[in-house]
Amino acid sequence: MQTPVTIPVPVLRLPRGPDGFSRGFAPDGRRAPLRPEVPEIQECPIAQESLESQEQRARAALRERYLRSLLAMVGHQVSFTLHEGVRVAAHFGATDLDVANFYVSQLQTPIGVQAEALLRCSDIISYTFKP
Amino acid sequence: MAMRQTPLTCSGHTRPVVDLAFSGITPYGYFLISACKGAGQHLPRLSGQHYGKPMLRQGDTGDWIGTFLGHKGAVWGATLNKDATKAATAAADFTAKVWDAVSGDELMTLAHKHIVKTVDFTQDSNYLLTGGQDKLLRIYDLNKPEAEPKEISGHTSGIKKALWCSEDKQILSADDKTVRLWDHATMTEVKSLNFNMSVSSMEYIPEGEILVITYGRSIAFHSAVSLDPIKSFEAPATINSASLHPEKEFLVAGGEDFKLYKYDYNSGEELESYKGHFGPIHCVRFSPDGELYASGSEDGTLRLWQTVVGKTYGLWKCVLPEEDSGELAKPKIGFPETTEEELEEIASENSDCIYPSAPDVKA
């Protein structure tokens, strides 16, 4: 019997290693909000805190909130407003890495229900859902 | 077309990886801490001082988060608390240290009288259990770090592993030839098991109260409550560490022949085995969701392996070939194409091979 031809499981990339110059634990890292000692940005007493790092912190918090909103949408009914006043509803599955496409199922379109579909982000004006 | 396992090598340690532990599942995913024996190379200005550098990584990808700096000797044991907010390490510098796992800062240094080998947090992270070459179990109240720890004596050789069990009401500890069960409240021994061969590792599974013990070529399962034997399997080589899948379908084990073995827990059938490490495997653990297992080896690497080969998870991306096509299909969603040649390169880069190591998959 022939040995079956196998292909190696593809990987997106290799695990990231140490950066070689620091001990890591990025100060504004993803888990920083968990720590109760971290003060609110407005109350921060550190005089040297630059506007830039405040802005970066705010951006990071907003980004994280957005990503969590995507996670919360999984499996829920979402209604999308597309161009030219078209509205469709579907079950949200996932987005790709750049949030350029929305993978949905049971897409209700004016011409019927599509079992699986990809909505291009550029075609979406807004979307809404109830958690 | 069948898929073959692509292990992911986590770089950073260059010295033998002797212990690893996962956290529980937190809102930020789960995390992995690893301990190594000697000088790491990633901070060249500190080379010349030979000490172990425990590292924290994101559990599902192996991405490095940070290195805990402070120990002045080989780090023999490392653990995380359930929500990965604290880490603890046990070292040859006669101390155990508690760390803030979010900032990487050292919180406490707990002085001992000899090499410390093992550390374990209670579920509520209020207490730390330590054990080592001085043959004493110590319980530290982490809310009162200045207070003297409670000590439990009885072991007649150095303690290799100590774990809380039965909702922290009992303690399991292993030395060279015995495994002992202690009552936390009374600090007395409840039961003990004797072995003819050196006990190499111990793992506690709270759901089902199962204890996994390895010694010689045996992988044994006991009740953590009564220490009564449940079952045991023999491996082809001396086993240093084994781990039971959270759903108790599989177990993985690794040891002196450098190979990782995966068994069906119910039947004992060997399902898969992998070459890839080029040194003995010291520790192996399943992730808390059971989707992957991590192995640490004398060769200085930590590797992640998929439980279900070919499943999309973490950095592994399943790409299904199109029907009637001999080639690997291009991914339909727009992420960078990976040709088969590039995949082979990634796989071989991962293996760090001096000699070819085609993994054996026995389906």
Automatic annotation (TrEMBL), chain A:
A cellular-component GO term for this protein: cytosol
GO BP term, pick one: spliceosomal snRNP assembly
Cell location: Cytoplasm; Nucleus, Gem; Nucleus, Nucleoplasm
Any one GO MF annotation of this record: RNA binding
Residue span, SUZ-C domain: 1-29
Residues of the Sm domain: 65-131
Pfam families (alphabetical): Gemin7 (PF11095)
Annotated InterPro entries: Sm (IPR047575), SMN_gemin7 (IPR020338), SUZ-C (IPR024642)
UniProtKB keywords: Acetylation, Cytoplasm, mRNA processing, mRNA splicing, Nucleus
Binding partners and assembly: Part of the core SMN complex that contains SMN1, GEMIN2/SIP1, DDX20/GEMIN3, GEMIN4, GEMIN5, GEMIN6, GEMIN7, GEMIN8 and STRAP/UNRIP. Part of the SMN-Sm complex that contains SMN1, GEMIN2/SIP1, DDX20/GEMIN3, GEMIN4, GEMIN5, GEMIN6, GEMIN7, GEMIN8, STRAP/UNRIP and the Sm proteins SNRPB, SNRPD1, SNRPD2, SNRPD3, SNRPE, SNRPF and SNRPG. Interacts with GEMIN6; the interaction is direct. Interacts with STRAP/UNRIP; the interaction is direct. Interacts with GEMIN8; the interaction is direct. Interacts with SNRPB, SNRPD2, SNRPD3 and SNRPE; the interaction is direct.
The protein's role, per its UniProt record: The SMN complex catalyzes the assembly of small nuclear ribonucleoproteins (snRNPs), the building blocks of the spliceosome, and thereby plays an important role in the splicing of cellular pre-mRNAs. Most spliceosomal snRNPs contain a common set of Sm proteins SNRPB, SNRPD1, SNRPD2, SNRPD3, SNRPE, SNRPF and SNRPG that assemble in a heptameric protein ring on the Sm site of the small nuclear RNA to form the core snRNP (Sm core).
Protein family: Belongs to the gemin-7 family.
Name the record gives this protein: Gem-associated protein 7
Species whose genome carries this gene: Pongo abelii
Automatic annotation (TrEMBL), chain B:
Pfam families named in the record: WD40
Originating species: Pongo abelii
One GO CC term on file: nucleus
Protein name listed in UniProt: Serine-threonine kinase receptor-associated protein
GO MF annotation, one: mRNA binding
Keyword Amino-acid biosynthesis found: no
Cross-referenced InterPro entries: WD40/YVTN_repeat-like_dom_sf, WD40_repeat_dom_sf, WD40_rpt
PROSITE patterns named in the record: WD_REPEATS_2, WD_REPEATS_REGION
Residue stretches of each WD repeat: 68-109, 109-150, 152-192, 274-306
Keyword 4Fe-4S: no
Organism classification: Eukaryota, Metazoa, Chordata, Craniata, Vertebrata
Keywords for the protein's UniProt record, in alphabetical order: mRNA processing, mRNA splicing, Repeat, WD repeat
Family to which the UniProt record says this protein belongs: Belongs to the WD repeat STRAP family.
GO biological process terms, semicolon-separated: alternative mRNA splicing, via spliceosome; maintenance of gastrointestinal epithelium; negative regulation of transcription by RNA polymerase II; negative regulation of transforming growth factor beta receptor signaling pathway; neuron differentiation; retinoic acid catabolic process; retinoic acid receptor signaling pathway; spliceosomal snRNP assembly
